[in-house]
Amino acid sequence: MSLVGNLLGLGLAVMASLEGVARIYYGRRFRMPWRSRRIGEYPYDRFIEKARPPLFFRFKKGFRSSQITINRFGMRGPEPAPDGLKDRILVIGESAFFGARLPRERDLWSRRLEERLHGAGYTGWEVLNAGVPGYNAVQYRTWWEEELKATRPSILLLEMGANDMTQAYVMGSRWKPGAPWPWEFIMRQQRKSPWWNRFAVHSCAYFLWRRQKMTERRGFESRNGRFQYEECLSTVEKEARYIVDQARSMGIRVAFTSITPAYDDDSLEKSPPQLDAIQSNWRENMRTSGIWLIRLSREWSERFSGEVNCPVIDLMKPFWDHPKRFQLYLDVFHWNRLGHDFTAEVIFNGIKRLGWW
């Protein structure tokens, strides 16, 4: 038994030394400390169901699991108070706002924002998270008409268009307004890794080994001719204007917000190693559809917001200016726990500056 114990102790010591060396190497190579690579593996096939066009798919109301809660409104998050009991902020957004890949739902930005509100004495408010991975502007306008406006929020925060742009980029000349991601594409977002991976992802040495062995992932590719940027932008603006006009006619205060990629305009030239740590194929993503998403966000905040006289609660610049920007992401588009908390802080302060709480 002593020999076995000695060998076991030696093995653990070697593993600890290897992990220590790996973390030192990681810090020097990527210029930031190591963080666990654990992500949430969501059962999309269990809580997403098919719907008639133009929605095509939606969340199952009342779904409950250890990682996902879908409330009576078909949104991610806890069950809201009875109608009329609290003021509501409704945020329409895409997969980052949904919380894609976040391991624990309690770290979701919408829960953090509600905690901030209550901690500041705004106990009569609650937050509704209408983020859906894959929805385009036509789908959001339809959902707004059919159900979201019935929640009667006091504040509406609107972010959409990134899915439209990516779809238009991929589909090229075949793109049409409202064209959805195929059902098979949505289901491919589901991941299921082996049980041992839940432990291994906490190891820096394992991450470096896997990065070395991993085949480069492909980004979004344009396959069918001309990218219809202006036509796509026009569609996003048309659907957003419809939602804004309806919301205002109901007495709802409306503001825009933005997508928040980890990379910025100068990333291809600077090639920061921090982005390599977040996602190995970020350069390909930025060279293809990514640069158009940044352009869309600027159009959204610098031009269209002025046309409809909507204030902007910008997330992109605060994220880019954050001294630990690259430690806020799970990949180049989706936030980790720290990123969700920072999102809640920026939204809280932005709406407070508007005097809307």
Strand and helix layout:
Elements: H1 2-30, H2 44-47, E1 48-50, E2 57-59, E3 87-93, H3 95-98, H4 109-119, E4 125-131, H5 137-146, E5 155-158, H6 162-171, H7 183-187, H8 197-200, H9 204-213, H10 229-249, E6 253-257, H11 267-270, H12 273-278, H13 282-307, E7 312-313, H14 316-321, H15 337-354
Parallel strand pairs: 3-4, 3-5, 5-6, 6-7
Antiparallel strand pairs: 1-2
Overview in brief:
The chain contains 15 helices and seven strands.
Mean pLDDT: 92
What structural class do the secondary elements suggest?
alpha/beta
Rg, Å, rounded: 22 Å
CATH topology, by name, is: Rossmann fold
Largest beta sheet, briefly? Answer: 5 strands, parallel
Q: Which strand order spans the largest sheet, edge to edge or round the barrel?
A: 4-3-5-6-7
Order of helices and strands: HHEEEHHEHEHHHHHEHHHEHH
What is the approximate shape? Answer: globular
Tally of structural domains: 1
Proportion in helices: 40-55%
Distance between the termini: 66 Å
Residue share in β-strands? 5-15%
Any overview of this molecule?
The structure is a single chain. This protein is an alpha/beta fold and 357 residues long. It has one domain (31-354): Rossmann fold (3-Layer(aba) Sandwich), CATH 3.40.50.1110. It has 15 helices and seven strands. The strands form two sheets. Strands 4-3-5-6-7 form a five-stranded parallel sheet, with helices on both faces. A two-stranded antiparallel ribbon has the order 1-2. The termini are far apart.
